[in-house]
Write a structure and sequence with these properties.
Blueprint lengths: L1 E6 L5 H12 L2 E3 L2 H10 L3 H9 L4 H11 L12 H19 L2 E4 L3 H5 L5 E7 L2 H12 L3 H23 L11 E4 H19 L1
Helix pairs in contact: 1-9, 2-3, 2-5, 7-8
């Protein structure tokens, strides 16, 4: 079974994913994915992370398509670095998934693999105020900084999924299981995911 976990920032997805992997004796995949992609592209994991957040808008993509038909302003052939990163991320997610018994955090894993009988697509969410408080307690940063970071990351993730996969990131129809972490807590979220896997 493959578990993909998407989440609103500040829901504690890393802790949930680690505990799920431990309970099921699955491989946990998160930080190592951009490292693999970076090696393939001969760049740094930080460059891969930045490229993942830099999704073009629909307008940007339309403009690029128009430019390709206008010889005077046509760009040189070949994929951009961001496009190469996206291609390699997709390929790497599929490779990790091919081994089975894996928990993949973020990276659009659910969108890449889609609806399959061997994939459980999970979305973790919680109210914004709860997430702010959760991060404040964990890291002790100022509330203004935390609030701005939550909003920035949520916008970037939503844009990435919309632009690259034509899906609404928070739409429950794109997942098999949606969990309110504020209501169930980390243990409850882990129990729900493990039970869903075992029920299959």
């Amino acid at each position: 079974m493959i578990i993909t976990i998407s989440n609103l920032y500040g829901c504690g997805a890393v802790a949930v994913a680690h505990d799920v992997a431990d309970r099921l004796s699955y491989t946990y995949v998160d930080e190592q994915l951009p490292v693999v992609v970076a090696k393939r592209l001969q760049t740094s994991p930080q460059a891969v992370e930045s490229a993942e957040e830099a999704a073009d808008s629909v307008g940007d993509r339309m403009l690029r398509a128009l430019e390709s038909g206008t010889p005077e302003i046509r760009q040189p052939p070949g994929a951009t670095f961001d496009e190469e990163c996206l291609r390699e991320v997709r390929e790497t997610v599929r490779e990790f998934a091919a081994h089975g018994n894996v928990v993949i955090v973020g990276r659009g894993g659910g969108a890449i693999l889609g609806r399959r009988p061997d994939v459980l697509r999970v979305f973790l969410h919680a109210p914004r105020d709860w997430r702010i408080q959760h991060i404040l307690e964990a890291y002790g940063a100022s509330e203004d900084v935390v609030t701005a970071e939550i909003d920035r990351i949520d916008r970037a993730r939503a844009k990435h999924i919309e632009v690259n996969y034509n899906l609404k990131w928070t739409d429950a129809r794109n997942y098999d299981l949606c969990i309110d972490v504020a209501s169930l807590g980390t243990k409850g979220a882990v129990d729900a995911i493990v039970n869903a896997v075992r029920s299959r």
